[in-house]
């Protein structure tokens, strides 16, 4: 009965990363917001965006360095030249629990640290409409009591002088 059933593995989880691993990716089209976790340590923001399953198109004039469309949005841009200033994908980054910072680095050169967040919002430079996720708490292991006392160590001193000649 299950013959022909194909289950595709998701490229990333459908929520913010937990702890200090992975890079959380937020995409805000203006009408919907998606938050996903790029596992590991993607070397650039564009690799984090692609790692979570978003399809990215670049302008012909700037291949691989400027985002024109994410998952086909917006369909109206022909992706030939730089997107217009009132209709482009603004790129932000943040610490978990922090505030969005408009990136002075491009998506192809910004290296997000594991545990941080990158955000993309379509429009005229506005930040994503959701705050970066709060930090997750991790519990440290409880210290264990020592049950025995350390034993003192003693050693006999050895002579370091040379033997006398006869």
Structure description:
The protein has 166 residues and is mainly β. It is built from one helix and seven strands. The chain has one helix at residues 45-51; strands at residues 23-28, 33-38, 56-57, 69-70, 88-95, 101-102, 116-123. Strands 2-1-7-5-6 form a five-stranded mixed beta sheet. A two-stranded antiparallel sheet has the order 3-4. Strand 1 (23-28) and strand 2 (33-38) form a beta hairpin. It is elongated. The termini are far apart.
* Spatial order of the strands forming the largest sheet: 2-1-7-5-6
Could you list the spans in which at least 5 consecutive residues all have pLDDT below 50?
1-13
Averaging pLDDT over every residue, what do you get? 83
Succession of helices and strands: EEHEEEEE
The termini sit apart by: 99 Å
Structural class: mainly beta
- In DSSP terms, counting alpha (H) and pi (I) runs of 4 or more, how many helices? 1
Sheet with the most strands, sense and barrel status: 5 strands, mixed
Rg over CA atoms, rounded to whole Å, is 27 Å
Number of strand segments:
7
% residues in beta strands = 15-25%
Oligomer kind: single chain
Silhouette:
elongated
The percent of residues in helical segments reads: under 10%
